[in-house]
Automatic annotation (TrEMBL):
<protein>
    <recommendedName>
        <fullName>Pectin acetylesterase</fullName>
    </recommendedName>
</protein>
<comment type="similarity">
    <text>Belongs to the pectinacetylesterase family. Notum subfamily.</text>
</comment>
<dbReference type="GO" id="GO:0016787">
    <property type="term" value="F:hydrolase activity"/>
</dbReference>
<keyword id="KW-0732">Signal</keyword>
<dbReference type="InterPro" id="IPR004963">
    <property type="entry name" value="PAE/NOTUM"/>
</dbReference>
<feature type="region of interest" description="Disordered">
    <location>
        <begin position="43"/>
        <end position="63"/>
    </location>
</feature>
<feature type="compositionally biased region" description="Basic residues">
    <location>
        <begin position="51"/>
        <end position="63"/>
    </location>
</feature>
<dbReference type="Pfam" id="PF03283">
    <property type="entry name" value="PAE"/>
</dbReference>
<feature type="signal peptide">
    <location>
        <begin position="1"/>
        <end position="20"/>
    </location>
</feature>
Length: 487
């Protein structure tokens, strides 16, 4: 009898330890929607891919493993569909398939563009111009991640990542026989081919399907140019876009004469668009603009887009300030060293705010625009991503603002800081590029209901279970303490 009671006592002790360990979170399946986010970003190239054995390619990759969640997928009949990279290799896309979800993320890679023959030739020898050395698997980041800690809003969705190998911000329609440099610039056809294959294989063109389509930098420009065209392909599915850092403005470079017509870079863009790319832009915009290439500027194309769009743009886009500058003009120094530079930046920030006026006032679109010096929030590089994605306006990060916009169908999620005469950075994104930072404001707390995502049929009552077992053990030990001592 005493032996049985002792065994029961030990059994209760083990159950208390195991139950407590589970309830403290080691195997909990409850994920509060509003918990802090650990975010990552897309890479500008494909350094997060690693070769895997070919024998693994046929295995179904478990959804619980978040690394290497995207599998290389060939584009069928790529040659006839003009889905070719700069060097003539066939373009591909990466897929993370979840049969339990009917919703999709389609993400275009960041990566600039090329204009001269030498730069395009050099590009064609690497991952930005050729698919020959792409790996079988890669890890998705930002909204392409399967990790619910990194991507709580879209982690269970199907993911598609489209590598950027055409050098044309995903708008090109000109092959090597007609291209000024003798290379394929078929970005628009690559995007079209990917969506056609998704329709053929997974029937994403259904009324109950949601699609988030976008990208960073050049991928954001590609989204603006293609989204209404893709909307027609996937009808009646619901498509929305996001543009991260692909919102350039028609503002003159530092040292360039103001009020002298479009900035000099517009001439460079015109050359690439017509001579190299044979570019595709939104058709409604093209019909109303004297020059089609103007439709690559967000502030000009935006009013013609019918699909809802979310925009991420810093008040001072560091890429436009320092990279889209012809050699005849001085490069903007960051932080500014002269009063004239600070004055220019003040005007530049006000112009960014002006360009967003239509987005700010929209009932379906949204924008996140802090007083920061940066380019893309999610796609510049992994080194900066921890800082850029942690930037806050009124307590909201870029990811949180995007999620809020998506959930509310555009009624919420817009966060824009008013520009000042002289640049002062938001303290949450203060960097070596800033001359002065604003004083931090108290963090705004939001009382939001916790959304519980349940992956199985049972909910574990974490706190009450632990307390119940502990009390049971204490009571039993107290009642039978004499038997235990005598033994």
């Amino acid at each position: 009898m005493l032996y049985q009671r002792l065994v029961l006592t030990l059994w209760l002790a083990i159950i208390c330890c195991v139950g407590g360990w589970q309830d403290l979170g080691s195997v909990s399946r409850i994920q509060p929607y509003g918990r802090p986010f650990k975010l990552n970003s897309l890479r500008d190239s494909l350094p997060n891919t690693r070769p895997r054995a070919r024998r693994e390619s046929s295995r179904r990759r478990p959804r619980g493993k978040y690394e290497y969640n995207l599998k290389r997928t060939a584009i069928r009949d790529a040659k006839n569909r003009n889905a070719l990279c700069l060097d003539g290799s066939e373009a591909v896309f990466y897929l993370s398939r979840n049969p339990d979800s009917k919703h999709w993320i389609v993400q275009l890679q960041a990566g600039g563009s090329c204009g001269t023959y030498d730069s395009c030739l050099d590009r064609s020898k690497g991952s930005f111009g050729s698919s020959r050395n792409y790996s079988d698997f890669m890890t998705g980041t930002f909204v392409a991640s399967d990790d619910p800690g990194e991507n709580p809003m879209f982690s269970s969705w199907n993911k598609v990542f489209v590598p950027y190998c055409s050098g044309d911000v995903f708008v090109g329609r000109r092959g090597k026989n007609k291209n000024g440099h003798g290379m394929n610039m078929f970005g628009h056809f690559i995007v079209k081919s990917v969506f056609l294959q998704l329709i053929e294989d997974y029937r994403i063109n259904k009324s109950n399907t949601k699609i988030l389509f976008g990208g960073a930098s050049s991928g954001g420009l590609g989204m603006l140019a293609n989204i209404d065209f893709i909307q027609e392909l996937v009808k009646p599915a619901e498509i929305r876009g996001y543009n991260d850092g692909g919102w350039f403005t028609l503002y003159p470079n530092f040292g360039e004469t103001a009020n002298a017509g479009p900035p000099y870079f517009f001439k460079v863009l015109s050359f690439m668009f017509h001579t190299l790319w044979g570019g595709f832009v939104d058709e409604s915009c093209r019909a109303n603009m004297p020059k089609a290439e103007a439709c690559l500027y967000g502030e000009l194309v935006f009013k013609y887009l019918s699909a809802p769009v979310y925009v991420f743009v810093a008040q001072w886009d560091s890429y436009q300030l320092q990279e889209l500058v012809h050699s005849q003009f001085p490069t903007m120094r960051l932080p500014p060293e002269l009063p004239s530079e600070a004055e220019y930046l003040g005007k530049f920030g006000k112009n960014t705010h002006r360009s967003l006026r239509r987005v700010i006032n929209s009932q379906k679109d949204g924008v996140f625009s802090p007083a920061c010096f940066m380019h893309a929030f999610s796609g510049e590089n992994l080194t900066n991503a921890h800082r850029t994605l942690a930037c806050e306006i009124s307590g909201k990060t870029p990811y949180k603002a995007l999620s809020e916009w998506f959930i509310s169908n555009g009624t919420r999620g817009t966060y824009v800081e008013e520009p000042l005469d002289k640049p002062e950075c938001n303290p949450s994104c203060c960097s070596k590029l800033c001359l002065k930072c604003r004083k931090p404001k108290p963090t705004v707390e939001y009382d939001e209901p916790t959304e519980v995502i349940i992956e199985s049929g049972a909910v574990r009552w974490q706190q009450t279970t632990l307390i119940t077992w502990v009390l049971a053990f204490v009571v039993y030990s107290f009642v039978h303490w004499k038997d235990v001592v005598l033994l």
